[in-house]
Amino acid sequence: MAGRMYSAEMSVATLELDAFAHLNAAQRSAVEHDDSPLLVIAGAGSGKTGTLAARVARLVRDGADPQRLLLLTFSRRAAHEMSRRAGLLMQQALGVPASARPPALPWAGTFHAIGARLLRDMAPALGLAPGFTVLDRPDSEDLMAQARADLGQAELPRRFPQKATCLAIHSRAVNSDQPLAEVLQRAFPWCSPWEPELRRLFAAYATAKHRQAVLDYDDLLLAWATALEEPAVARALGARFDHVLVDEYQDTNRLQAAILSRLKPDGRGLTVVGDDAQSIYSFRAAEWRNILDFPARYAGTGVIALEQNYRSTPAILAASNALIAEAPERHAKTLWSAAPEGPRPRIVTVADEGAQAAWVADEVLQLREQGLKLMRQAVLFRTGTHAAALEMELTRRRIPFVKYGGLRFLESTHVKDLLSLLRWAQNPRHALAAQRCALLVPGLGPAGTRRLLAALDTPQDPVSAVRAWVPPPSARAEWPGLLALWSGLQSGEIAWPQAFDAALKWYEPQLQRLHEDAAVRMGDLRQLRQIAIGQASRERFLADLTIDPPQASSDEAGPPHRDEDYLILSTIHSAKGQEWSAVHVLNVVDGCMPADMATGNAAEIEEERRLLYVAMTRARRHLNLLAPQRFHVTQQARWGDRHLYAGLSRFLSPAVQACFDLEGGPAVADSAAALGLAPDSVDLAARLLKRWT
Ligand code: ATP
Ligand code: MG
After folding, report:
1. Are residues 441 and 550 both part of a single domain?
2. Is the pLDDT of residue 277 over 90?
């Protein structure tokens, strides 16, 4: 017996060497750290995420139950990646043969997704309907508008904020965990006079949500945090998880920090990792002080800094360090790289966005010629629309790509229609979903739909109310079809995922009738079906899709053809935590980085600097910053569409530029300059207007 124990120990010891051998000393100390609160604060590419995964594996090796580890990440994609990495390490550390499945981590996900699951589990205790559905942003706006109309605020004499603004104010107040008056004063000063009306509106909105058994996106955090205010709930949930580990802690907001401290009041079992220099979500109320204040909040916090960057070549790291060194306020970190030297990063000036698209396409192909797969290259940009010219160019040249960022797919009418059929079945009280479904029935108009909604709004059983409802004569022929589908879905008679096909079958003729481009839209729905059939239940499918409206459709759908090679297009925000061998950043010009609209105050400008830092630190070996001299601006409605003669981003100071090779530059003359004309030397619009005035 003793002999066996001995050999088991031996094999664990050697396997351990395999699983954790790659760690450096600082990473190892984070992995081996005991249960006291731990903060790993370190720069980009220093192995924070990898260290967190290794810590999970180490905890499991030492006996922690994977079911009792809560792992909070920034996106679902990040959660998958983290589980995968931790799984491999666990396999090695536990000596599980590679053919066997590594232990699963069922509680890895975003704050919102985990919140939804816990709330559903606790629903009976909290007076929540267990079948609650989650509203996406546009639906939340519509419900807000509805509440506003019900209060008669639509007819207020002075201009009241739009529904989207109301929701933004609501969201900011919730996520920043601050009083409404303060939020208004700070972020929406022009709405301050409306405080009493907004307060009434938000109360009505909360009531409407409760009546319909729906939660909005922010409720997933708010309801979770609020439930945790009750000591019994905090004790129960705190005891449910032995360890809570958080990646990208710099982008958490006050509500998320409150959730963590209510779960683990003394910080025992709490590990957070992050980089204050990469905080880019303050527009969603992220509080970058969270990370700096962590040690003060939890007595006895171990703080570990990681200083070796394993991602980038020294040349790219030098450029990134130079950029962030000019940020006035930051937690000083020095990063060094032992990677072999690579080509110097480049700043490339081009004439306009068309030239930029062509340059990037050429460069991408050239790197591929040199053996760098498309998949190992990424084009990053500030907002989804900035990639339009490039998307056209890539399509024209038949270069396959996948785009992350932007929600067009989930917000398109046909996708929302189909989801509404499933949502209404999931939650019969979901008025917006019911309304959307009813309006699809030929012969059923707004008046008939209003009557249906009124019938639904009953304290009695809404299911019998729908069954008993009598449609107007114009819809008598078609209503029964929807009713039969709804009943089948609602009762569970049609199982999942056949339920998706049943809904699609009913919807297809409506799609044909309502849209000229029905064939294209059917393609989207088939893509949605692929996602649906991979999900265990309707509830999970709907919740996941709404809660993590992930960075994008392609994020959901996965790559178009798994074995094919494709280029990555992504917003910088969605690129967080990732890396590619080659990174090309579009529109590194003033007006875009920083954005026109973000130049209001110093804090906003600093966030823009960090955004560029995040973009640059995604690159391993090749980094190109593109600067079109003429840049098309559409984001500022008050100026209309216009071209801007853009200068290089103000963040590329002479000291930063010194780390780059400059290409193009003043030598790239646009045609006006070639004629010897200065930008804007003639105000043609004013002259044309003068003819008539
Ligand atoms: P970010 O700040 O962008 O989130 P990060 O600090 O989380 O970055 P990781 O993504 O964990 O960094 O790691 C960056 C790269 O460095 C990865 O390719 C990883 O495999 C590699 N790496 C990390 N630690 C080591 C190590 N000790 N030895 C070799 N490679 C390492
Ligand atoms: Mg990371």
Report:
1. yes
2. no
Residues 479 and 522 placed together within one structural domain of the fold: yes
Q: Where are the alpha helices (DSSP H) in 404-461?
A: 408-411, 413-426, 431-438, 446-456
Which residue CA neighbors atom 2 of ligand 1 most closely?
44
User: What is the pTM assigned to this prediction?
Assistant: 0.80
- Residues 473-528: tens digit of each pLDDT: 999 999 999 999 999 999 999 999 999 999 999 999 999 888 877 777 787 788 78
Closest Cα to atom 11, ligand 1: which residue?
A: 47
pLDDT of residue 261: 96
29 belongs to a structural domain? yes
CA distances from 407 to 112, 122, 507, 550 (A): 18, 31, 22, 8
Distance CA 89, CA 95 (A): 10
* Distance of CA 310 from the midpoint of ligand 1 (Å): 6
Pocket test for ligand 1, best of 29, 49, 249, 620 (most atoms within 8 A of CB): 49
Which helix (DSSP H) or strand (DSSP E) does residue 574 occupy?
Answer: none
Helices (H) and strands (E) in the chain, counts: 30, 19
Give yes or no for residue 442 having a pLDDT over 90.
yes
Do 586 and 658 fall into the same domain?
A: yes
Ligand 1 site residues (CB inside 6 A) read 22-24, 27, 44-50, 275, 278, 310-311, 577, 579
CA-wise closest residue to 609 among 623, 620, 599, 619: 599
* Cα 308 to ligand 1 centroid, rounded to whole Å: 9
Over pLDDT 90: what percentage of the chain? Answer: 55
Structural domain that includes position 636: 314-400+561-674
Judgement on whether residues 346 and 295 belong to the same structural domain of the protein? no
At 10-53, the pLDDT tens digits run 344 444 457 888 999 999 999 999 999 999 999 999 999 999 99
CATH code: domain of residue 623: 3.40.50.300
The pLDDT of 634-662, averaged and rounded, is: 75
Residue 128 lies in a domain: no
Residue 122 within any structural domain of the chain: no
Q: Give the distance (Å) from ligand 2 centre to CA of residue 137.
A: 27
Report which bound ligand comes closest to the CA of 311: 1
Domain count, the chain: 4
Domain end (from 306, 330, 365): 306
CA of 626 to the centre of ligand 2 (A): 25
The closest ligand to the CA of 50 turns out to be 1
